[in-house]
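@here heads up, posting the sequence + SMILES for the magnesium ion run so it's all in one place. Ping me if the SMILES looks off, I pulled it from an old spreadsheet.
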Amino acid sequence: MLHPTPHERRGSTPIIRLDAVHAGYSALLVLENVDLTVMAGDFVGILGPSGSGKTTLLRTILGATRLYQGDVTVRGASTTRRIPRAGYVPQLETIDWTFPVTVEEVVLMGRTTKSPLMPWHSGEDRRMARDMLERLGIDHLRKRQISHLSGGQQQRAFLARALVSSPDLLLLDEPTRGVDIKTRDEVMHLLHDLNHQGITILMTTHEINTVAVHLPWLICVNGRIIAEGPPAEVINEDVLLRTYGAVMPVIEYHGMPLVAERPHAASFRRGASATEGAPNDPGTMTERHEHGNHSPRGRSGRAAHGTDGPPHRDA
Ligand SMILES: Nc1ncnc2c1ncn2[C@@H]1O[C@H](COP(=O)(O)OP(=O)(O)OP(=O)(O)O)[C@@H](O)[C@H]1O
Ligand SMILES: [Mg+2]
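bot reply: prediction finished. Complex structure tokens:
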């Protein structure tokens, strides 16, 4: 059973709030006019093509991007004033693997030392790191170099680092990328358990079907928020076209939307049933690639950027 949606949680407290946010990097505006509310206890999936701003959105919530306009608050405090406390698991490919560090040391990085004058970890820190490694099933790997682990094991090690400080907010950048189907399932179930314990989770992913099956709330991003809602409302051909600029057939399986592979154009045209199910002729895809420039949430958008603003990200 999926968790209550943010709409059912109207009575609970917002933990994250973005209000008309324009954010990016010093020479690049990535996100425009983003309004977002995440309630305490939510479990949210963020979808979007490469370069659409998923990582930038997580980093904006952490106060780690340039905020051109708007407000970002976490637990009611502006991120421009206070760096929010959150467990963060970065995208694995952004990590410098030449750094010689063991799995246990990576996890201990998640525990802040008591004082700069005593920059070593206590016995309790080490015990908590061991407990977390055990919980994630990789305690036997604790003395290994992190770069010598498989992708799934590395994901777990970084998850352990994020969890060892007992955060109530977890931001995960593609936590299921590059892992086999069993590990992916285990990671998703682990995240569900954590969410049931009250941890608010935001995760980015390219795996639309995984989040459609596991998550109660999705956000589609492409430089702005294209759509958000429960998978049954968000995973449809129109939203996917506007998010990814590609035609993706959506089928229903046991009441859940699933994105199917689009057959090769020739076989697509041959089979009558396949053609009936096709959203449109692949020959028309070039025109359909254009993104719609209206928000499904009906926001007209505040203050469009002037010509002297930062350059926009590549399309
Ligand atoms: N540190 C940075 N400095 C400048 N530009 C950046 C930086 N990080 C990302 N970008 C640019 O910002 C845009 C959005 O990148 P982002 O990493 O948020 O995309 P993404 O949706 O996470 O993509 P992916 O699915 O490939 O991880 C891209 O055009 C990218 O080149
Ligand atoms: Mg990313």
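MO: The radius of gyration is 21 Å.
MO: One more: The longest strand covers residues 14-25.
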